[in-house]
Amino acid sequence: MRPLTLKALLAPLLAFAAIPLVEGGPIAYGLCQTGCNTLAVACYAGAGLVFGTVVAAPAAPAAALACNAGLGTCSATCATVALFAPTP
To answer: Is the pLDDT of residue 35 over 90?
Structure first.
């Protein structure tokens, strides 16, 4: 077995160094969540409700339950996408 040369060691290192680093972070995630909450408030207002005042129970209006489902979907998307988005 031949010993590794410096040239053989540097080639993979240079290849990995050429790959740009991308980081997701709390800034992108926070902005995404703020957008989700803004949409939820607008959804509630469109239904004649005030966000944060409706108790999520079986007796809650169907519009509130639909708005909550949309907020949940949006928040889950933020957790899977925005945390990995490029952050300068």
So the answer is: yes
Q: Sign of the C-alpha dihedral, residues 52, 46, 61, 69?
A: negative
Q: Is the pTM of this model over 0.85?
A: no
> Do 65 and 40 contact (CB within 8 A), yes or no?
no
Q: What is the pLDDT of residue 70?
A: 94
Q: Tell me how far apart the alpha carbons of residues 20 and 26 are, in angstroms, rounded to a whole number.
A: 20
Mind giving me the DSSP string for the chain? -PPPPHHHHHHHHHHHHTSPP----HHHHHHHHHHHHHHHHHHHHHTT--TT-S--STTS-HHHHHHHHHHHHHHHHHHHHGGGS---
Query: What is the end-to-end Cα distance of the chain in Å, rounded?
Result: 45
